Amino acid sequence: MYIDKKSIKRDFINELTTMYSEDIKGASNLHKYFALSELVKKYSSQNWMRTNRKYKNTKKKQVYYFSMEFLIGRLLGNNLLNLGIKDVCKQALKELGINLNELEEVESDAGLGNGGLGRLAACFLDSMASLGIPGHGCGIRYYYGLFEQKIINGYQVEVPDHWLRDGNIWETRKENKAVKIRFSGNVRTEIKNNSLKFIHENYEEILAVPYDTPVIGYNTDTVNTLRLWNAEVIDSDFDFDFFSKGDYSKAVEHKNSIESISQVLYPDDSKEEGKLLRLKQQYFFVSAGLQSIIRTYKKMNIPINELDKYIAVQINDTHPSVAVAELMRILIDEEEISWDEAFKITTNVMSYTNHTILSEALEKWPIYMFKKLLPRIYMIIEEINKRFCEEIKNKYPNDNKKLNDMSIIFNGEIRMAYLAIVGSHSVNGVAKLHTDLLKNKELKNFNEFYERKFNNKTNGITHRRWLLKANPSLTKILCETIGDQWIKNPLELEKFSKYADDLNIQNKVREVKEKNKISFCNYARRVYGIEINPYSIFDVQVKRLHAYKRQMLNVFNILNLYYKLKENPSLDIIPRTFFFGGKAAPGYYLAKQIIKFINTVASKINNDKDAIHGKLKVVFLPNYSVSLAEKIIPCADVSEQISTATKEASGTGNMKFMMNGAVTIATLDGANIEIKEAVGDKNIVIFGMNKEEVLNLEKNNSYKSNDYYYSDPRLKRIINSLIDTSLNVSSSEFKDIYSSLLEKNDEYFVLKDFDSYVNAQDNIDKLYRDKNKWQEMCIMNISKSGIFSSDNTIKKYAKDIWNV
Ligand code: 26Q
User: Fold this and answer.
1) Mean pLDDT score of the chain, rounded to an integer?
2) Which stretches within 350-407 are classed as H helix?
3) Which residues carry this modification: N6-(pyridoxal phosphate)lysine (predicted)?
4) Mean pLDDT of 691-698
């Protein structure tokens, strides 16, 4: 949109007056932030309305992205950028004596996600809006997002994330669009007009109220919707039912138990034993989302048997996979469509993305729990399974193993991934290697059964947030050098590769990184009270804490360097600062010990002034979040992507670093492989076992971690330091880490890949010494990052899966 500076100033002052009866002098930054955000909302409100109207009138097919998680981060800066008014707004505010950055910093992150999967959903929303694709998010409005992480005495301490405390300016409550959700009760059958009807009775009914947030596309009039559902008591229940019986506290208890459904995001990003509340959350938002979609289409007089021409639903991992059965329920019980037709519509509508191969992460629900909470849905799943099993028996007569291996219901549990596969027309993995493993290993049976369902969609990231917003200085250089067409078409970043050996451009890219590093050092001094050398190599590993992501491997290399420096203080290495950041699931003890270990190593090294000579520093950044990611990623020289091959489905942090000109040190895992293909072997540092080697070791059980401990004195010393108090903590502090490596045989092959990793790190040190070569690598990484824009990914979903 176009708006001039003068109008912004006027509108902003008006807003401040209307909202708070305050002038610029008197208003707090929080109020200024709200006033500006309100203004941004107003500027986009016409387009939001028009987009909705257009979608309705043209009856264009709509995509609904169903996800338990949307890791949005902050919106003000992003919305200003996408509206194309960030610069003018910055100027206008400056003239009013206000610093836009300071206002942006007041906003709390919408941290409604754990990590990669939630952030991917947010990047996809941005891309769909920016490409003008009618695509909307459907999820839960958690009252508490992912916990805030504090580090106290080196330990992670979880604090509730009260992100709504000051109010959320971006959302609009739509109480008139609320729907009712039914839990528990029983199902009775009845013959009506010669057909069998299912009547759900004695259920508990709760209210789902939507809160809508505009998703503003970049440089377009499209404004899509993120609809998040809030669980509430149906008013009449609260007022009359319990209350009138004179039991006030029971009434309040009842209300609380219902509201608890949208109270908190589960802070686990892999597995957890089947928790009833989580199942309630899943059915709650899925049912609400589907009901509201169907209501819309019925109002538009679209024949229900043509639903699949008008909508597509993407299921983000198994979490919303109950959608398959819920849509069947609506079509059969409410719309009175035959089973066969309903199933055809359902599979045409649904598609499923798998984000993990770790088998313990594939969701399963115990039948007894599921049946009690969702009796009718369970019946439908049973029927889907019965028919599916018939098909298996037809295709593989007398193959009981096949039947058991593929059955949706097995051994007292419902396998949600299998339900999602059977009920969808598309199943995709999130990187080539990952899809390969799904097709040929983890879901091999299903791939053979459904020849064409499986496909790959390598993840992506929105270059608008992760380059334009996070790194305006680099953006400027790119625009000065290759024009600004790459912003609309990120593949054109490729043009920048022409300048890889241009000394002038190399210098500019180096200066930008240096500038970013210096401002991060200032931030670190201000916020954490720590000193960081901006001229050291910034080596960054930020991601969730997990054994398979191997933060331990990183720390082991650091300790190795440290011991080498102790022995030889004049050892010639480029000063390096190792950054870590990431949260551990509160119940994942090993991951929490690793955090304590990193902090223990940090304090040992950082306090050892004499031997280190400023060559080594370790920093754990607390509370890694989207907004912190935007600060640290543009400063990174080295991107750590060191998971055990085959374990990281894709990774998306790897793409963000690359786009900001970091060099990746990586295993051949997830999308690292595709990054390597894009930048070429010269511009990435690869180490460690590949997929075949890992799979072989796993298969023939031949790995013995103890052999490495005994044969490599470096490892012996490092591992001993876990239990010998040389790091100044008690000998039992890290006993779980110790035992995971030696007694439990090092499931993720940290010891096995250690030597190769140390050499790779040594190689990084050498490469960095050749300033020009290093910059060339950085430029190549930036220029090849366009294929990892989520715009590309979304175009493929749109064409291959959604048909929009
Ligand atoms: C499941 C059951 C119970 C409790 C929690 C969960 C749960 C919650 C979140 C399971 C998994 C998640 C999140 C997984 C995730 O973020 N996966 C990542 O997805 C990214 C986007 O595709 C990939 O890039 C990463 O490789 C993958 O780890």
Assistant:
1) 96
2) 367-373, 375-395, 400-406
3) 656
4) 97
* CA 249–ligand 1 middle distance (angstroms): 38
Q: How many CB atoms lie within 10 A of CB 26?
A: 10
Q: What is the model's pLDDT at position 270?
A: 82
The single-letter code of the amino acid at 131 is L
CB-based contacts of 180, cutoff 8 Å, min separation 6: 205, 206, 207, 208, 234
533-774 is classed in which CATH architecture? 3-Layer(aba) Sandwich (3.40)
Active site positions, annotated: 355, 543-544, 549, 652, 656
CA–CA separation, 233 and 255 (whole Å): 6
CA distance 740 to 748: 10
| Alpha carbon of 116 to ligand 1 centroid (Å) | 7
- Closest by CA to 684, choosing from 674, 699, 693, is 674
3-class secondary-structure state, position 709: helix
pLDDT of residue 243: 61
Say if 59-74+109-459+795-802 and 533-774 have the same CATH topology: yes
Q: What is the mean pLDDT of residues 395-401?
A: 97
Residues in the ligand 1 pocket, defined by CB under 6 Å: 114-117, 120, 266, 268-272, 278, 355-356, 361, 363, 430, 459, 648-652, 670
Give the CATH architecture of domain 59-74+109-459+795-802: 3-Layer(aba) Sandwich (3.40)
pLDDT higher than 60, residue 239: no
Task: Say if residues 39 and 15 touch (Cβ distance below 8 Å).
Answer: yes
| Residue 272 Cα: closest atom of ligand 1 | 3
C-alpha distance from residue 741 to each of 201, 307, 497, 706, 737 (Å): 54, 53, 43, 8, 6
Distance CA 620, CA 603 (A): 10
The percentage of the chain sitting over the pLDDT mark of 70, rounded to a whole number, equals: 98
The CA-atom distances, in angstroms, between 405 and each of 109, 353, 389, 399, 408 are: 42, 21, 11, 10, 9
Which residue, judged by its Cα, is nearest atom 19 of ligand 1? Answer: 117
Structural domain boundaries of the chain? 59-74+109-459+795-802, 533-774
Cα 349 to averaged position of ligand 1 atoms, centre (Å) = 23
| pLDDT classification of 429: cutoffs 50, 70, 90 | very high
- Ligand 1: residue of 317, 434, 545 to mutate (most ligand atoms within 8 A of CB) is 317
